[in-house]
Design goal:
By secondary structure, the chain is α+β, with helices and mostly antiparallel strands. Helices cover 33% and strands 24% of the residues. The longest helix is centred in the middle third of the chain and has 21 residues, at 176-196.
Amino acid sequence: MVDKYIELLLKKCINIQNKEVLFINADIALKEFAERIKNKAYNLGVKEVYIYYEDINVLHDKLLKLSMEEIRNDPYFDKSIVDFYAKKDACFLILDTEFPEVLDDIDPKKIAMSKLINKKTRPIYREKVNKGEISWCIAVVANEIWAKKIFKNDNNAYQKLENFIYKACMVDTNNPIESWKSYIKKNLEIINKINDLKIKKLHYKNSLGTNLVVEMPNESIWNSIANQNKGLFISNMPSYEIFSTPDYRKTNGIVYSSLPLIYCGERIDDFYLEFKNGKIVDCNAKKGKEILLEIINGSENDCYLGEVALVNFDSPIRNTNIIFETTLLDENAACHLALGDGFPECIKNGVNMTKKELLKNGINQSDNHIDFMIGTEDLEIEADTKYGKKLIFKKGNFNIWKKIKKIKKKYCQML
């Protein structure tokens, strides 16, 4: 299973073929797995593999002991090494894992500051990612601490979590690469259909109290792994979402979280956000309100939306009935939104626009991008489309595909 997963990550997720340089970002707890990836990459002809190891315990100690000013000036938080390899047009593989409760005694302001510095010190990488000039993937990997938090008092916790991850990533199939190719082909059909609707506005409602209207920019584009850089690589493993970027200036109403948000190891639970003219004007949380406020006020425009994503409630990850407490998995279990940076590829010609031009066209620009889950079993989403109003989500799932031809036929008759 490990070898199959590594082959999937290298050959499909970052499309390693004909690439000379690979950059791997991993916590030291994943050293054995990262080293196996390095060896496999060399066997596939890669000339240079650089592994950038982090250590959650070192991070904890630094954040605990250092002042805010010392954090700003400590080279540990400087990630400019990423830009060094971005200039080399390296492939980037980020191994994502969780360490629940390790940072519970850290001031949320320090956590938010460290994240902000991390992103600000790699602008070249971020620009190349936005323009689709490099292949990259964030892939989920298990560790013992995380597994024992999910499966308490279970001697086989690590193996259980690892097996769930393999299932979510289709590693348990005969040929994971072909399985993802098949999924991408079907997903592309859905993307083409939803883009044909020319959605102008989305109205979310559910029994939690969500009543939110999100408007889309002119010439918006819905995307997924099916056409990320023309399907040459998969940026998130796993990924079952269809996403776009809203007009950050035109969101109004209130939205409630449906799953916890884990941010730098901190848990934010049972929270709501209220928007007016795109901006968050009120919020609260039963747990983690301080860190939620730090996210909202973290950097310029973090108080506006940068993403809308559609995911069936009846999805492979949601059907496990497990809250994995990591965004990479949990965001694929429910419809979600994201605060902060928007996606240039989600508007026509956006990848060729400057930041000022993107803002002018309603695409949010920020140093952060934080997903949070809002999908529920009773979520309904009504869309304003070029064919009129359409309930595209009903009882938490897509309510659209079988009726598209009928809607288009009626629309054409009206014309």
